[in-house]
Each structure stands twice: as C-alpha cells, then as structure tokens.
Amino acid sequence: MANLRGHGPAAFECNIKTILQGYLWNSPEALVFFDHRGALLYQSAQGELQFKRWNRTLAHGQESMSLPAALFPVLKDGKGPTQLQHPALSGLSANLEPTPGGFVLRILSDQLQDGPEPLSAQALAALQKLSRSEQRVARLVVKGLRNDQIAERLCRSTRTVEYQLNSAFRKLGVRNRVQLSLLIS
Question: Which H/E stretch holds residue 83?
C-alpha cells in the first residue's frame, strides 16, 4: 500500500478504482463493466480486445468502446442475464448480467476457449523469455496462423504482429516460423 497517494474519501475511492482496474486488467476472462446508463467503467485486457473486435465487425464499423445497441433494452428493463450472439461472427457471443453497480458483459469467444496445450520444459523455458504479447503471437504461429490471421484474432495491426514475431525470433535465437514452432511446440 506504499504506492497509494492522497488522503480523504476522494483519494481513497481513486486508489480503490486503480487497484480494481489493475487486478481486473490481468484477468484471463473477457470482462467489461458498465454503469446503469451503459458507460464503460472497467475492463480486463481480454475484455478490451474482444469488445473492440465485437464493435469493429458490426455493420457500422463502430470503433468506440460503447455498449452494442442490441443490449441497451436490457439496461432499461434491468432483467436477469441476457445472452447475445454476435450478428456477424459465429464464434462470438456475450452474456450481460446485472450487478448492484451496473452490468458486467462477459464476452465468450471460440478463440479464447481453445486454451493452452500442455507445454514441454523446453517450450516453457523459451516462452518465459518473451513478453505476454509475444507469447500470444508465438503460440498462434505454432497453430499455423498467418500474420494477418493473428492480427485479426488479437485485434492488432499486421505490422504490430510482425514486430512482435521478429522480437520473439531475436530473443529465442531462431530465424523463422518453423524453428519457432519446433522450439515451443
């Protein structure tokens, strides 16, 4: 608690929000929290990625982090959990659940559910040399995805994926995708 700053109720509330957001950010689930009006409160890293993916592929190409229009009626009536299938992406769905302070949107993706396979000691040691982002890219390379497919899946630009892949090559001392796959599969 040495990093907490300020005194009084406002500072305490700010510190609690910072702690909550930091904790939630590292959650492996794709979670996005909204208040009763639909304003974004908190989100996990996976929640941000999948929510951007959800909005980007809608007919209007909505890039903002706002609640999909199909869920606004649920906010108004405040009824129990509601499930929604993405209108364009078959493997993407969401559950909107009321909470005392608003709503939590839990985004479910086939892409997130094909969890990590067991790793050999060699693969684990290699992956520990990489950043979290580089690990994700490397694991998707092993699954046989191209850079453009990885970029779509992770909601990144192709250029970012190429940069992270080259960084992984350099850190692991490999020259190509085949060597990378042999090392971490």
Answer: strand 82-85
pTM confidence score: 0.52
d(CA 123, CA 103): 39
Q: For residues 4 and 14, is the Cβ–Cβ distance under 8 A?
A: no
Helices 147-154, 132-142: inter-axial angle, 10-degree rounding = 130
Task: Render pLDDT for 107-126 as a digit per residue (tens, 0 to 9).
Answer: 887 654 444 455 677 887 88
Q: What is the spatial distance between Cα 129 and Cα 80, in angstroms, rounded to a whole number?
A: 44
Handedness of CA 176, 182, 183, 184 (dihedral sign): positive
Cα-to-chain-centroid distance, residue 171: 24
How far apart CA 85 and CA 183 sit, in angstroms, is 38
Q: Are 84 and 71 in contact (CB under 8 A)?
A: yes
* Partners of 117 in the β-ladder: none
Nearest to 184 by CA among 132, 118, 110, 114: 118
Give the separation between CA 138 and CA 40, rounded to whole angstroms. 31
C-alpha distances in angstroms, 123 versus 44, 107, 117, 166?
27, 29, 11, 18
